[in-house]
Amino acid sequence: MDLESYLQAALYYEDLEPGARWLSPRRTVTEADVVNFAGLSGDYNSLHTDAVYAAQHAFGQRAAHGLLTLAIASGLTTRMPVYRLMDKSRLALTELSCRWRKPVFIGDTLQVALSIGEKRLSRGRPDAGKVTLDRTVLNQRGDVVLESAWVTLVRLREARP
Q1: Sequential DSSP letters for the chain
Q2: Stated pTM of the model
């Protein structure tokens, strides 16, 4: 595929096959990430920001905010070629659910396994369908730290009558 064809390429609802799976690039969680997220969110919970307190917690060290892990998952997903190919057809995020399975610590390296889950045509929009994008976040040991389902409104190649 030449560059011009690649730039024009797009994936639509019909192209997304349930069960298809891709891996994102990896990213290491840093001290700066945790500090900046605390400032941005206003969440200065001691588990995230106080090393002495966190050392006495069951985790034994500071943990990254759960919502920071979710935000990193979002960012890693946007770096994936398959996700970029959906840019022209992705209309909106309509639902999000997640479960945090294990803590994420400063120095952990995260990666997202993205898979296509359930698909269904939209009741209200003849030009779109809803696709569940399952995002599983793994740490450097392959442990699942977060499981999430992002229901996304995706344009059909051609609107239904």
Answers
A1: --HHHHHH----GGG--TT-EEEEEEEE--HHHHHHHHHHH----HHHH-HHHHHHSTTSS-B--HHHHHHHHHHHHHTSHHHHTTTTTEEEEEEEEEEE-S--BTT-EEEEEEEEEEEEE-SS-TTEEEEEEEEEEE-TT--EEEEEEEEEEEE-SS---
A2: 0.92
Tell me how far CA of residue 79 lies from CA of 1, 7, 17, 83, 131, in angstroms: 20, 15, 20, 7, 19
Residue 159 has a pLDDT of 83
Instruction: Tokens for 16, please give them.
Output: 């997304």
